Amino acid sequence: MQAAQGKVTLVGAGPGDPELLTIKALKAIEAADVLLIDDLVNPEILALAPSTARVIQVGKRGGCESTPQEFIERLMIAEARAGQHVVRLKGGDPYLFGRGGEERAQLRAHGIAVEVVPGISSGLAAPATLGVPLTHRAWSQGAVFVTGHGKDAASEPNWAALAQSGLTLVVYMGVARCEAIQAGLLAGGAKPDTPVAVVQSATRAHQRQLLTTLGQLPAALRDSGLGSPSIIVIGDVVRCADDWQDLAELAPPPALEQPAVGHAASPGIRFFVTSRDAALTPASQGSDPVRGLTPTVAFRVAG
């Protein structure tokens, strides 16, 4: 006797912190027969799945070698037709740069029942960890979520137009293309002193963040060592960040013979790099904990 057809649930696993899973996402994970997991899903979340569930890694990360999308879709269809409850677990939200729309369309085209469980996107969570709202009556009446890594040249965002919108920009997968993003925004009229925040591994225990300006973004990113996965937030709302006032008041840094990190700092670069949930100490031993900071790393994790 042929088994009853199963179903697929596209689940947003949130930005990383397991406590930010929705109740509906948790219930879907607990009821899964098969889980197809993206690279950005926190391994701690897998502990919530039944011990009998099969876990299949189908790594998807911008700019890296990934499991072919067609293979993932065929696998979901085959498992559902075999009577399994398939949970496609994605970092963030399935419908925000997660290809959830493509997967749902393919599943429906093959007669597979599919449900979508939204998740908290890192584009919302990352700025929140710094105290940054995406909208603010004084500075921004809206926000734009945009990828820095288009499918091809034709799908490249119109950075000049975005610069003229006056809206907060939340850029996914933008670290590797920060120079092109900066050039496009400046060409569109954005001011070099526009505040910028970069958050790597948002809400995870190893989260790191950077506060700088648009004019200094590429050099600050290079000197900070931050990489992917990161969210870049561009706009005046970044002034709400907990450490922004300290950065704004930071005096021009003195010349250093030996930078605080293992490479030469770019002259004149001023920014903060901090870590989440870590003991923070001034990077210099001066009596003033703000004006004595080095130009490369304003705080470092106490060892």
Automatic annotation (TrEMBL):
Pathway: Porphyrin-containing compound metabolism; siroheme biosynthesis; precorrin-2 from uroporphyrinogen III: step 1/1; Cofactor biosynthesis; adenosylcobalamin biosynthesis; precorrin-2 from uroporphyrinogen III: step 1/1. CDD domains: SUMT. Residues 7-217 form the Tetrapyrrole methylase domain. It is an enzyme of class 2 (transferase). The keyword DNA damage does not apply. Gene3D superfamilies: Cobalt-precorrin-4 Transmethylase, Domain 1, Methyltransferase, Cobalt-precorrin-4 Transmethylase, Domain 2. Pfam families: TP_methylase. PANTHER family: S-ADENOSYL-L-METHIONINE-DEPENDENT UROPORPHYRINOGEN III METHYLTRANSFERASE, CHLOROPLASTIC, SIROHEME SYNTHASE-RELATED. This is uroporphyrinogen-III C-methyltransferase.
